[in-house]
Write a structure and sequence with these properties.
The structure is a single chain. This protein has four helices and 13 strands. It is an alpha+beta fold. A 13-stranded mixed β-sheet has the order 1-8-9-10-11-12-2-3-4-5-6-7-13.
């Protein structure tokens, strides 16, 4: 070990960067982990966006699909959609299981967090976390970059991170930041959550996708919460009253069926990345 660094560095963003990560997530203790691609988009305006690549691909497919349907509706005066339409089937291939979107604003030193819960979306804004990194003397190579090791205890998990000093931007996937270089890999000691960079680009121009935060609707409202109360409010969304409808079976009434359904879905999220509030 050769030092300790607090997560108070101001990233020097002199170029646009697009990093693709393979994200392994074990959100449930009862189910195997799954992996999906995420993007970290960093622009010169001292902002970064961590978002599901699958989400963006599916949304692009669906936008073209509904634009086409609207064009057809101008002549037929009605919109007809079907779950069996090729575009719907194609979009469904890009399932977004780890439903988290995070925007960091390094100028204001704040971040915005949004995550889908049961029949709702939770959202909050908070100050960038102060991360007490422990710098280590180990090195290895990721994507042809020499990366250095650092460790961190954060919200109930112990992490190992590998950062690239050659990419002098103090950022990384999820909420992680504060090291003297871009984080290319980070994982907890149980390997429940593992973020690994699989590609890096330096485009001349980079634009964040439009409307990357859900706006909410009557059926899927956005609930404002706080960082401290997030998990408590997340658990509250798993309420049988939020179930729109369930067919009762012999020996069970509708309320029992709703409770069973809610508990089954809730079990998919019993191993969150953040196990503690502090």
């Amino acid at each position: 070990m050769f030092g300790v660094i607090m997560g108070l560095l101001q990233p020097v963003i002199a170029q646009n960067i697009k990093i693709e990560y393979k994200v392994k997530s074990k959100q449930s203790l009862n189910r195997p982990a799954f992996t999906e691609p995420f993007l970290l988009l960093i622009n010169k305006n001292n902002k970064s966006l961590f978002i599901s690549k699958n989400k963006l691909i599916a949304r692009k497919i669906l936008k073209k699909y509904y634009d086409k349907k609207l064009q057809m509706a101008r002549s037929s005066h009605k919109i007809i959609t079907s779950a069996s339409d090729p575009e719907i089937i194609e979009a469904n291939k890009y399932e977004n299981k780890y439903k988290v979107t995070i925007e960091k604003d390094f100028k204001s030193q704040k971040y915005k967090y949004q995550q889908y819960a049961f029949m709702s979306v939770l959202q909050y804004q908070a100050k960038l976390p102060k991360l007490n990194w422990q710098l280590q003397d180990s090195i290895k190579t990721i994507l042809d970059y020499t990366v250095h090791k650092a460790t961190l205890n954060y919200k109930g998990r112990h992490y190992t991170a590998w950062y690239a000093p050659a990419i002098a931007i103090s950022d990384g996937p999820f909420k992680f930041w504060g090291l003297p270089g871009l984080i290319l890999e980070i994982y907890d000691n149980k390997d429940d959550y593992h973020f690994t960079a699989t590609g890096i680009e330096f485009p001349e121009k980079i634009e964040f996708p439009k409307k990357y935060f859900a706006k909410g609707s009557t059926l899927m409202p956005v609930i404002q919460t706080t960082e401290k109360n997030f998990q408590k409010d997340f658990d509250k969304t798993f309420n049988p009253d939020n179930v729109l409808g369930t067919t009762a079976y012999i020996g069970k009434n509708t309320e029992e069926m709703k409770e069973e359904r809610v508990q089954k879905i809730k079990s998919k999220y019993n191993n969150p990345i953040e196990l503690k509030d502090d």
